[in-house]
Amino acid sequence: MKRVVFLLLLLVLFFSSCRVIEPVGKTEFVLGTVCTISVYDNTKKASQAIDEVFAALKELEKKLSANDESSMISRINKYAYSRDVSADEETAFILKKAMEYAEKSGGAFDPAIGAIVKLWNIGTEDARVPSENEIEKLLLSADYQNINIRETSIRLLNPDTRIDLGAIAKGYASDIARDILKKNGITRAIIDLGGNIYAMGKRPTGEEWRIGIQDPRGDKGIYIGIVHVSDMAVVTSGDYERFFTVNGKRYHHIIDPTSGYPAENGLLSVSVISKSGIDADALSTTLFVLGADKGKDFIKKYAKDAEAVFITTDRRIITTDGLKDILDITTTNYQLGK
Ligand code: FAD
Ligand code: MG
User: Fold this and answer.
1) By the 8 A CB rule, do 202 and 232 touch?
2) Ligand 2 centroid – CA 21 distance (Å)
3) Is the beta carbon of 254 within 6 A of some atom in ligand 1?
4) What distance in angstroms lies between residue 167's CA and the mean position of ligand 1's atoms?
5) Helix (H) or strand (E) segment spanning residue 22
6) Residues 213, 226: contact at Cβ < 8 Å?
7) Which residue numbers in the chain have pLDDT < 50?
8) N or C: where does the chain have the smaller number of CB atoms within 10 Å of the terminal CB?
9) C-beta 31 within 6 A of ligand 1
């Protein structure tokens, strides 16, 4: 009898340790994309914390959207050529970070790209290939040196310059989401802002999160590999989410500010892994424009704590050294390259 009770006890222990914690999650369309927050802690506060996150994301969208006439960014774009416009601390912080990346990358990353982005309208029904003339007229405006920022006061030095924070704002938003969850006692969560991911803490099993790196030429959910991370942002910039095709040519949404055309530096995508969401987002766009060789140099010089995986048009996968320990490559469609 004792033996039976002991066996039963073992079985109960076994099954309770296998119990899968169902996440508390919510998905909404915000920041121009589908955002999902999934919390894996066993806490009553999860739903309330998630609601708080979405409220903050909506506030951020109101401030930062280049498409909303009443946003802070639109106000700057409308008035800051003729007079100083005073921004709120948060907008100024993100813009200053964007300016840092612009300076370090020699303008490969450029928050003054707004007028050119609007010209292409990629990701909307009105996407089109602009004429060379149209691009030429606005190209000089797309230079971060036309943005002057002191404290929170902003001035634009070219009448056509338009600020666009689309390459950095979701990363900042993921940091804010993480901080709100943390403040509410959440320790395990996946924050997914349209593929801009923050993996908080560890899985309920105690193992690291497994985040798939999308095959840029595969169906959605087909990965080239899996990164194992905790408390890390995993952010990808690629040519496969927002693009349109004319006469067999693909035009995507990441613009080379020197030409005004979609960047063509031999890359299909770049994924960046970093503790900071805002840096991972800014970096992924910067590296995509720079290409793999200059991109690796940029990481070595300016972002030693970050790791990157570059997927090239000639079907190679190039990684920074530190990534080798945390990335399992599962594809046979690409060669490991240098
Ligand atoms: P990333 O590589 O991170 O960024 C690419 C985006 O950055 C481009 O879309 C462009 O906006 C900008 N960019 C292009 N080239 C450069 C460059 N060289 N340097 C710096 N920036 C560059 N999308 C909609 O379709 N409708 C909306 O109403 C809408 N509202 C949004 C509101 C907010 C607050 C934010 C943050 C985004 C919104 N978006 C909207 C999405 C946005 O337009 C971008 O498509 C998106 O942010 C791109 O993110 P990504 O991670 O795909 O690419
Ligand atoms: Mg980015």
Assistant:
1) no
2) 32
3) yes
4) 5
5) none
6) yes
7) 1, 5-18
8) N
9) yes
User: What six digits make up the tokens of 267?
Assistant: 């890359």
Please report the pLDDT score of residue 13 as a whole number.
44
Q: What would you report as the CA-atom Rg of the chain, rounded to the nearest whole angstrom?
A: 22
Ligand 1: atom nearest CA of 195 is: 51
CA distance 151 to 236: 31
Position of tokens 């942002």?
Answer: 233
Tell how far CA 227 is from the center of its chain.
Answer: 16
Token pair of 220, please?
């959605």
Side chain identity, residue 239: D
User: Phi first, then psi: what are they for 270, rounded to 5°?
Assistant: -135, 130
Cα–Cα dist 221/243, whole Å: 18
Q: Which residue has the tokens 């940091």?
A: 175
Does residue 252 line the site of ligand 1, with CB under 6 A?
no
Q: Is 124 in the pocket of ligand 1 (CB under 6 A)?
A: yes
Provide the token pair at 62: 């109101």
The model's pTM is 0.93
Q: Which long-range contacts (CB under 8 A, 24 or more apart) does 128-131 make?
A: 129/246, 129/251
Largest CA distance in the chain: 89
The ligand placed nearest to the CA atom of residue 196 is 1
Distance CA 122, CA 129 (A): 9
Residue 271 CB neighbours (<10 A): 29
